[in-house]
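The following block was generated as part of the benchmark described in Methods. Ligand: flavin-adenine dinucleotide.
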Amino acid sequence: MIPRPHRIREIRRDTNDTYTFDLVPADDGPPMSFAPGQFNMIYVAGVGEVPISISGDPLEPRATVHTVRAVGSVTRVMCALKPGAIVGLRGPFGTAWPVREAYGSDVIVVAGGIGLAPIRPAIYHLFSYRDNYGKLAILYGARTPRDLLFRRELEKWRSRFDVDVDITVDSPGEDWYGKVGVVTNLIPRAHVDPMETVALICGPEVMIRFTVIALRDRGVAPENIYVSLERNMKCGVGLCGHCQCGPEFICKDGPVFPFSRVERYLKVREL
Ligand SMILES: Cc1cc2nc3c(=O)[nH]c(=O)nc-3n(C[C@H](O)[C@H](O)[C@H](O)COP(=O)(O)OP(=O)(O)OC[C@H]3O[C@@H](n4cnc5c(N)ncnc54)[C@H](O)[C@@H]3O)c2cc1C
Ligand code: FES
């Protein structure tokens, strides 16, 4: 339960309000290992603690990578920190994307907005073990082109021949020549065999709900659809009940769940 001090080694600005941090143990001790989908509780001195998913490559543990959107008191202060500053990490906590269980299957990743960050470690795993999967599709949607995360990396992924990467924005700017519309519009044409597909979804809850409907319409089996959920958290380890949804603790039983297990709680913002 005691946060381990980490030094900010590098900060990259992803969008207007979103930054990616490389964190290393302040005592130069061994780095944290984690499974794709897990999160840390990040403590910012004098302000508080927030759950943030790990967004880096699980096979590159030289730094613990987090992508943070400045939305409130803790995240705004964190996004104003400079390299060299110290934050505390507790974790990693929570369940993982079923990347090993999906060996032998096609995989479709559907991400919305900052939801690409928590799912990026699963994408790294899919690429590192590419031969273990059938077809791969990554569908990503953001509000505007300026809200797209990891733009250079998206271009790199798009240039690969072994993955179908499709991107759309709700509102295009003048410099956007790509697709326009919600991310669910991309599902009918994704290059996967629905009967053999495992789906990983991360984004706002309304996007999750419509994505699941579109995937089911295409014939993806409900038991093969996984989602990552967010709820306000305090302890992160199943003690305080802050994140509880019915019998499920999002911090400990999630954040990654089979959709069928949490479908009925998705409309509940806070209990
Ligand atoms: C398991 C898990 C993983 C998460 N992973 C990430 C991640 O990788 N990157 C990331 O940036 N965030 C992530 N979050 C969300 C993040 O924890 C919250 O944005 C953060 O707790 C907000 O804390 P704050 O003190 O900055 O804002 P607060 O002061 O608590 O909130 C201020 C205002 O922001 C609003 N707000 C709070 N959260 C959000 C939100 N997510 N989106 C929009 N408005 C919000 C509140 O309703 C309030 O109006 C994750 C949450 C969970 C549960
Ligand atoms: S955050 Fe305390 S039980 Fe989940």
